[in-house]
Amino acid sequence: xxxxxxxxxxxxxxxxxxxxxxxxxxxxxxxxxxxxxxxxxxxxxxxxxxxxxxxxxxxxxxxxxxxxxxxxxxxxxxxxxxxxxxxxxxxxxxxxxxxxxxxxxxxxxxxxxxxxxxxxxxxxxxxxxxxxxxxxxxxxxxxxxxxxxxxxxxxxxxxxxxxxxxxxxxxxxxxxxxxxxxxxxxxxxxxxxxxxxxxxxxxxxxxxxxxxxxxxxxxxxxxxxxxxxxxxxxxxxxxxxxxxxxxxxxxxxxxxxxxxxxxxxxxxxxxxxxxxxxxxxxxxxxxxxxxxxxxxxxxxxxxxxxxxxxxxxxxxxxxxxxxxxxxxxxxxxxxxxxxxxxxxxxxx
Length: 348
Description:
There is one protein chain. The strands form two sheets. This protein has a five-stranded mixed β-sheet with strand order 4-5-6-8-7, with helices on both faces. Helix content is 57%, strand content 16%. It has twelve helices and eight strands. It folds into three domains: 31-137, no CATH class; 143-245, no CATH class; 260-348, 2-Layer Sandwich (Translation Initiation Factor IF3), CATH 3.30.110. The protein is globular and about 65 Å long.
């Protein structure tokens, strides 16, 4: 054996071994990655199974139905998880397919069962399923206490938000066939416009609906005019918060209604952020607890978001109130400019 041969053979062996290692490690690594991904994102299983079943939908109506149902279920689960909306939409979604059946639904345990027949237009399937799902899952414990115009308008805005985020190709169908018939009532249209402005500012589901879910049961037994008064008091306060300037102290940063008792901490003072002084914010948080408010929100935008998070952590550390969630989302300011925002909720 020559010297050259003794050198080449180990090199060939090492190269072959490396290729074998890559062959086995890549599939295993990819498989482990997929398992970890689906474990942390279970809602994606429904979406991907719907996509895969969609490739075989031409083979049977059963495959087509499962494809549609898995896709819609996955999108709803993803929306609730991403927006931390389980207090507003606490139920899951399942389907029962019946030939020739018009859309209907009922609640079974913790799921809304939507009964429907298959339609080849998947955008229409999504709109119809969302309509039935929200008719049972949207604020299930308090919806019957709301004035009808408030409920219809709030449900429309929530439906449109879900569709816009999860199935934008269905928006035109929803607006033409659903919205146009619902807003023929002027009062519904008025509330819808108000809710849409809250949504643009990030206060619709994060604050308004959250408070309806939490305290709306207190509306029980009230006369209609009393209910409208309490809801409008909360709405007008939130509308003022959205349009106020940083030096506007014409109203307090809390809503002290009979039903809705909400305290807001706005992290917007630049000098406090520069000094990293959280003590004024902790003082206000303790004041909200001493005055028996129900909810405490901490909010900041853009450059204030990091310090807002610090204030939130200090409130948690000092156990001033019970932490619920901390969200980051897109919003618009009073000049309709796009902004990043952050908000945390505590219950007192």
